[in-house]
């Protein structure tokens, strides 16, 4: 079977990918991190971190600068080796089964990584090729995703001519090209205006709802989090709270997420309310 003929992940309206099948054991979470510690010399960037991103959930990783969010993403993506604890993507341990784990993973890094001199479509096809997807299947998938996101008319434009928000949306499309089940986004809205930020968050929430994608969204912007989201509060390398929006408010006795966050991490935070 060629890459062009590789069947898409089976989905249907009643049984989206990642959701448990009737009669079968429940699907593994999109991401399960257990007891991970990471040090840079004497500095402990992560200290016994455990968290789960269920399939079909929008989980916000909320933490101020220096909390350890990027370090955590670097461990999940294997930029760094996790020497303690375990990290499973869709049930695959990233150390023992890196190929299976990484093929289920899409990432949008903090720094922009599109080639400005290539067109939108060329950028997407380049990425598809890296994932072993044939030219025709890659083109079909890229155009389908651009269409869904309202960007089809920009396919042949050089990336240089897009707005910052559009570039970010293309990066999300690129991260989805190989049909991952987990999407990691590291502070994707930094530098965007309010309208672009809202469009980006809406794009990702739609994916969670329609495709049962598990999303881990690192941010320090409280406004991006809404009731119904799962939240992991990370501060100075430690998980300070992990639960639904309502659980975090109830646990801290707060009437808003800003107040809840402050009561969890104290005054030395740089989280934007
Ligand atoms: N390569 C490195 N060498 C030494 N220390 C590092 C390195 N990378 C990160 N750190 C330190 O680890 C801690 C966590 O940093 P990290 O970048 O993961 O936080 P973050 O939550 O992503 O912050 P930001 O929002 O500012 O990117 C910080 O104290 C940082 O200075």
From TrEMBL:
Please give the coiled-coil regions recorded for this protein. Answer: none
Pfam families xrefs: ABC_tran
Any keyword Nucleotide-binding? yes
Database matches in Gene3D superfamilies: P-loop containing nucleotide triphosphate hydrolases (3.40.50.300)
Q: Which SMART domains match?
A: AAA
Q: Which SUPFAM superfamilies match?
A: P-loop containing nucleoside triphosphate hydrolases
Keywords in alphabetical order, please. ATP-binding, Nodulation, Nucleotide-binding, Transport
InterPro entries per the record?
A: AAA+_ATPase (IPR003593), ABC_transporter-like_ATP-bd (IPR003439), ABC_transporter-like_CS (IPR017871), ABC_transporter_ATP-binding (IPR050763), ABC_transprt_ATP-bd_su_PQQ (IPR022467), P-loop_NTPase (IPR027417)
Q: Where is this region: Disordered?
A: 1-29
Q: Which segments cross the bilayer? A: none
This protein's superkingdom? Bacteria
Outline the extent of the ABC transporter domain: 31-261
Q: What are the recorded GO MF terms, alphabetically?
A: ATP binding
Enumerate the PANTHER family for this protein.
ABC TRANSPORTER ATP-BINDING PROTEIN, ABC TRANSPORTER ATP-BINDING PROTEIN NATA
Q: What family does this chain come from, according to its entry?
A: Belongs to the ABC transporter superfamily.
Name listed for the protein in its UniProt record: ATP-binding cassette domain-containing protein
